[in-house]
Structure formats: structure tokens, C-alpha cells
Amino acid sequence: MADSFDLVVIGAGPGGYECAIKAAQLGLSVAVVEKRDRLGGTCLNVGCIPSKALLHASELFHEAGSSFEGMGIEVGKPKLNIKQFLAFKDEAVDGNTKGVEFLFKKNKIEWVKGEGSIAAPGKVKVGERTLDAKNIVIATGSDVAQLPGVEIDEKTVVSSTGAIALDKVPGKLLVIGGGVIGLELGSVWGRLGAEVTVVEFLDNILPGMDGEVVKTFTRTLKKQGFSFKLGTKVTKVEKQKSGLKVTVEPAKGGDAETLDADVVLVSIGRVAYTEGLGLDKAGVKTDKRGRVEVDPSFRTNVDGIYAIGDCIAGPMLAHKAMEEGVALAERLAGHYGAVNYDVIPGVVYTSPEVASVGRTEEQLKEAGIEYNAGKFPFTANGRAKANKTTDGFVKILADKKTDRILGVHIIGVGAGEMIAQAVTAMEFSSSSEDVARMCIAHPTMSEAIKEAALAVTGLPIHM
Asked: Which residues are identified as catalytic?
């Protein structure tokens, strides 16, 4: 095996493996250092992929028990086989991680197994082996943010990692944090019968999302059985002989109360993971939050060392890391590569889904940008009415002077797929009129996007 490479990537998550593959496709010799037994990082192993498998299976379980009879499908009350339920998730992980391993072999990328550290500029040490690299990319991702005083044991007090591997449905699940991860995993176990309570420090769930979407989504989750304690903080989690006692109090001060729980999910966010990299020794600067500091070209302050993904500033999203990895690989190979940070979508994979790209109304108002808003509800969409999936709406925000689309926000079944149409439009600087003049297949949920675009000027067809 060679010990000299054009590029050494530390971390084989979505950002790292896409950077490696693109660089190899462009003719660079590439090695990837990964300490896990499988490629794919958090996303493929214990994050995006397994959680989506569980969301899919739990949604079908819920549908079978609540909606099938109304469609004339008589199957009786569904019964959960938790062992097979988790095996279904594991199959998804196995298939995806083996797929990345195949792509490494196809593109002649060497997987160096072990924990890597930067010994010096141009040198990565993995065990007893030292790799010489013209360029080093730090793609080590992120780790679960810890709540002071609350110890995660991945059994009764769990992170997202433990929450996708529970061996039984908890009677009461208390979720600390009203962000994407907590709401998704709360949905999984809630559909299977758990009583779900979400404790969120802020006054609303999904901070940073469009306010109108958040209000509608909160109401929808309440109808599904979620309980919310907003503007509330957890101060203590105590293990009892049977279950847990969780002490909470108002975030702004007030009387404390105690809640019972069988499982507590800590999902207050994630933090950059750079442990063991030797950044101090290499002279690589990090910010106050422990993220690697980079310039717009992903360069650190040390020549030949770059960083991408969750370990640098920006939204902690797999697809953001992927775009950065590809753009960086293109630059290192002498091509043009860039990421449009204004058009990075975000999706909450609950049912209904929430999807967003671009700016919210709150952000536009804060920036003093005048805009027009067009909104179309799924209650007026033919496919949604036929399928009884009428919860939610599409909202399009367009510049008042130029009509250029500035943001699109969707809550509804399939929103995560529909948002791609909005991303495409915004990448090409489309106006709301451009979208309004597109021919969309009928009957589809996506017609609501066209109608919302028509509504920007107040002229939707079906309202």
C-alpha cells in the first residue's frame, strides 16, 4: 500500500466520502481515514438513514391501525414485532454502508481503518502508519451535545443513537429539545404507542423555521398525541427503581415540577467533533464553539489543511456537507467548485413533513426586505383530498420589486420531495411567475407549489 496521496480525508461521513469520491473521479490519489467499522459516518450508521427507516415503518404501522379500515382494507389491529422492526432498520444501514464501500473500491480509494490525527502539515498518523498528503481534509462531523448534569447511558437516558435501538416501546417518552431529531424520533415511538412529551427551552419548537409553519406543525403534533412544555428547562433527571423522575422549571424562572418518564431522549443539538485530531499541535484554529475555522474556500489557517461539514460553521446537514465536499474536491483538482448557502433545504421527516428553503417571513422582515407571500392549502388540492392528506400548505415568498423567489416553506405529506422543485427554481433565480407558468402533472401534491406561486399575485385557480 502506498503511503503518499494527493488527498487524505479524515472522516467517512457524507461530506468526507463524497469529497473522496469526487476527488478520485477527477484523477487524484485518495485515502480516507475512518475509525468506525463501517463507512458512512453518523448519518448512515446511527443518524439519517436508520431514523428514516424507523419513521417509514412506524408510519405504515400507524396507517394500518388508523386509516386502512376507512379505505376498505381490513387487516385487523397491527402487532409490533420489535425485533424485526429494528432488523428492518439495520438492513437499511447495511445496504447503504456497503454501497459506500463498493464506491471506494470502484474509485480506487484506500480506506485506512483507525483513528487519524494530524502529526504535522501534510502528515496524518493512523496507528503506526504515517500518511503523506498534499492536502488534508477534516471531515469528522459532529457529536451529541450534552446536557450538564444529565448522564446519557443509552438505555433509559438516551441520545439519538440509543433512541433508534430501544428494545421495547416506552410507556412515557420525554424528549429534551424541540428540534428536528427530537421530533422525528418522538414521532417514531409515539406512533407505536408511547406517550410523548417534548420539553423545549425556547417558546417554540423548530427554532429558525417559518413561524406560520411552526404554529401549524405544533397543532398537528398535538392532534397526534404530543404534549409540549415550551419555555421550559430540564434541571434534573433521576433514575428510580422503576422509571425516571424529570425535574423541569420555566426557562425564565418559576416553580419546578416533576414529570415521570420511562425513557428520556436528550436532543438539544450537536457539537463539532474534533477530539484526537491534534489540531492544537498542527496549529489549526478553532472558534469558541470548537468548530474548525475556514475561509470561503474551506481552507484553515494552515496551508494544505481544509475542513468541511458539521465540524465547521453552518447548518449541520448531511447534504450541506456533501456539497462542500464536492466543491472542495473540484477546487483541489483545479476546477471550479462552490456552494450556494442561500439555497440549502431543510426537512423534518415526520408525518406530515416540514420542508423549507431560503428565508422565512421573520428573516425578511428583520432584514427590511419587502416581499409578497403566496399561500395555498392542501385542503384545496385534488390529490391531497383523494388521499385524505390535506394537512398543511405551501407558502412562497417573493421579492416585491423583482418577484424573485426568496423562500419556500411547505408542511404536508411528501414535503421533503416537493422542496426539490423549489430548490431548482431558486438555483436558477426564478420568479414566482416562472413557477406559476410551469405545467405540473395532475393530480399531484406538487400542484400546490404552482398554486402558491399564482397566489403571490393573488390569482390561484383553485381558491
From this structure: 442
